Request: fold
Amino acid sequence: MRFKLAVFTTMIVLIAVSSLPVRAVSVIRVTADDVRISESCRIVIPPGTVIEDKNGNGVIQVVASDIEIDFAEGSLLRGSPKGRRPDEYAGYGICIQDQSNVAVRGARISGFWCGLWAAGADGLKLETVDASDNRRAYLKSTPIAEDGGDWLFPHNNDGNEWLKDYGAAIYVEDSNNVTIRRCKVHHGQNALCIDRVNDSKIYDNDFSFNSGWGIAMWRSSRNIITRNACDFCVRGYSHGVYNRGQDSAGILMFEQNNKNVIAENSATHGGDGFFGFAGREALGEAGSHPLEWYKRRGNTGNLLINNDFSYTPAHGIEMTFSFGNIFYGNRLVANAICGVWGGYSQDTLIAANHIEANGEMAYGLERGGINIEHGKANRILGNIFKGNKCGVHLWWDDDGDFASKPWAKANGAESTDNTIAGNTFSADVLAYHFRGDSRVNLGRDVFTGVEAKMQKEDAVIIKDVSDSAASPVREPKYEVLGRTHPVGARSGLYGRENIVMTSWGPWDHQSPLVRIVQDNGDSVRYSLHKMPPAAKVTVEGRNVSGQLSSSVNPAQPDEYTVTAAKPGIHPYLLRVEADDFKDQIRGTLNSVVWDVTFFKWTAETDPRKNIEQWRALADGPSAVTAKAKRLVFSYGWGGPSDQKIADNITTAKLGGDYFGMIAATRLPLSAGDWNFEMLSDDGIRLTADGKEIIDNWTWHGPTRNAGTLSLRTDKTVEVRVEHFEIDGYAVLELKISPEGP
Reply:
């Protein structure tokens, strides 16, 4: 056991005994921390009770084997008071350690770092447990730009890093023959983590609308995971702006998980639908083993069958550095990058999948249906490809330092002996793309309305295997558990546009939501989703007014617009109250007109080396000038001409690399302290009232910088912003607000 609980000292208080159908069991009234359970019982928690786990060893501590624990209807084990931020939740709700054959039914657990934590719990049964609303991180990414600090890092967990760094609604470790069924986790970060859990059954659960992972697996094998809903387990997405996913996933499988059955699950709208990685130990980045140990080391022999892995910001299925896996009969539709990413995979069977419309927001050549780099002996058979940016893309390139790793030495990293046959391609931009020193076996495929059949480099060797007698691939037999049918159950939410991120995770399309839909600087428009009829909306602030616009279509949200009455910086507080729902949103109207000038630059006028030459380009022939209400430009991989700032800037066709911007305005500010916050990629400088407030004149990824201007008297000040972009992703966002709430 790698993570021990504290010694339990508190005695159980037995309140009453009730008669259940089979036998008399104790009724335990839980009203305080450190309740020890040593026999079968019924838990009763009075309404409104909040119990904090003050010493980190669990509010309820199960200290006996072979017992059944049922929660009375309406009992909620709540670990944090109402109003506490979800990233401040702490402690554990229920802890089970070194006890076997424990059953927990009907528990409702919320407000903890981890709702239920079981270790060394062979034979554990969790049924109808609702562990929604447990710890989740505050997400700093905005609709405008990604924040790199939101990325998850699932690569380490041998020291319980998942639990310690991220928390979980349910965390089970070092346990065999576990059953988890009919449980629910919404509005958390990681729903279910299984760590060294084998020969177990997980089915009929709903682990959706979480900001991390639906089901996460670490060194877990021979499990049956069927008919679970793991939809909208996502972060790092803004529709049409950026699609990163940030290593969130509906189902995550890291570090040597073998012979698992993943069947008939719905894992749509995740960062990835399914994200599998062989692991750092498997690659030779952690630990030390003889070279032979690394042979076929990874996630091996897993069956992914008849699942829906669609509408993701990244990949439908990612399974890398692994062997002998089968992807059969899965639905892989409209994933932003690709349907299947299988880098360095070997002996994979990819058959009878529906692979459609993938690659709309791809990064470079990794796009479309199936992408495999350095793959060997993979078989792509009998799939339906439709409307993808590319159907099948196989390639080899320089391995770099990876060639020296034990995994590469033991298994090789060629792109060879991959077979493509019996597939249909319709309306794909390109059916095949082959690159580098590769060997491909091509059989008979059917093409309809494909723009181009093949693109290949000279180093690629293609072998025609059309005459080979290939038997049709039969559906593998598998055990399926559960009565629900989650695939297609949320078809009304199909499409990546339905990924709507809040600061705490994805919107569930059921809860009330106040969402900003347009910010023009001097006015901000909000949409009010799923509000009860009696919703009251008000706005407070000097020089601001609000206007409610009711929708004539009941299916469409009402809208509320906050408008500035005069030029300047105007903070406001928006209040929305409806029955039990209350929300307060603080914002600032920036009623400003900026003079903006954009221009191209070259290596000879690099602003990091010669700032005056670079500034002079603002008066040169490539410069274009316009008026702008806001310095908020979500360039992404584009440039100024893609921002719809003004017609002359659009027609100037300023691309996304090597451009500069100089912007200036005169701004009336009252006496006091004023905060300037910028998100930039790349270099940024801001001066106000002749003082340097922000200076990050470097080549960098999306980075936030802030500074303060103090004024003794009311004053109109000149604000000047300079920005340069080198290449790749770009963003610029300026917020100005007064100090204080």
Remarks:
- DSSP finds five helices and 60 strands in the chain.
- The longest strand covers residues 568-578.
